[in-house]
Design brief:
The complex is a heterodimer of chains A (114) and B (113). Chain A has 114 residues and is an all-beta fold. Chain A has strands at 4-7, 10-13, 19-25, 31-37, 43-51, 54-57, 64-66, 76-78, 87-94, 104-105, 109-113. In chain A, the strands form 2 sheets. In chain A, strands 2, 4, 5, 6, 9, 10 and 11 form a 7-stranded mixed beta sheet that branches. A 4-stranded antiparallel beta sheet of chain A has the order 1-3-8-7, with no helix packed on it. In chain B, the strands form 2 sheets. In chain B, strands 2, 4, 5, 6, 9, 10 and 11 form a 7-stranded mixed beta sheet that branches.
Chain lengths: 114, 113
């Protein structure tokens, strides 16, 4: 199992450009998440998905969009990039049944907007 | 509102013990602990559930006080590999179950030889 994979690893965008961050998991997890982590800070939830075709906003969704057409893939779209979106972006996945389950994180995408 | 972690940073010598605390103002269903090394992704350590169930790393222990909505992570006989930033993530599970975590600001731990 590769686990959770993310591409690209690094990206520099100019203000106003758009891009899509890719995330794929091969663990057949039903839940997937996008977080951002600013330098020296904790993780903040951007969007999450409880299954294919179902997504919902997290704590900081403004400026981002997501879609989930398959169980495996959960891309994050940045429209009209702004310097405030400079951050490290982590995708995570989890299997949810009864009880509580750990989240598995991808390696992250480091994004700089200048 | 994010949970509050304390201390913000701690420096240990190898073999020493440390306690990291996580406190929330909300009623919690579970508390998750993760460790993140510089430039890497967070790695799961432990989950503590309301009702006393625990799941996680053999060599790491933690507690969850449901009345106070506080959790503590206990690192004993620290090793160099324990260095990193520790995050707690808290989960309130209401009608919309789903493992949504709110993370604290982190505790930086450095273990020196």
């Amino acid at each position: 199992n590769a686990g959770v994979t993310q591409t690209p690893k690094f990206r520099i965008l100019k203000i106003g450009q758009s891009m899509t961050l890719q995330c794929t998991q091969d663990m057949n997890h039903n839940y997937m998440y996008w977080y951002r982590q600013d330098p020296g800070m904790g993780l903040k939830l951007i969007y999450y998905s409880v299954g294919a075709g179902i997504t919902d906003k997290g704590e900081v969704p403004n400026g981002y969009n997501v879609s989930r057409s398959t169980t495996e893939d959960f891309p994050l779209r940045l429209e009209l990039a702004a310097p405030s979106q400079t951050s490290v972006y982590f995708c995570a996945s989890s299997y949810i049944g009864t009880g509580a389950y750990e989240q598995y994180f991808g390696p992250g995408t480091r994004l700089t907007v200048t | 509102q994010q949970p509050v972690q304390s201390p913000q940073a701690v420096i240990l010598r190898e073999g020493e013990d440390a306690v990291i605390n996580c406190s929330s103002s909300k009623a919690l269903y579970s508390v998750h602990w993760y460790r993140q090394k510089h430039g890497e992704a967070p790695v799961f350590l432990m989950i503590l559930l309301k009702g006393g169930e625990q799941k996680g790393h053999e060599k790491i222990s933690a507690s969850f006080n449901e009345k106070k909505q506080q959790s503590s992570l206990y690192l004993t006989a620290s090793q160099l590999s324990y260095s990193g930033t520790y995050f707690c993530g808290t989960e309130e599970r209401g009608d919309n179950a789903g493992n949504m975590l709110t993370f604290g600001g982190g505790t930086r731990l450095m273990v020196k030889p």
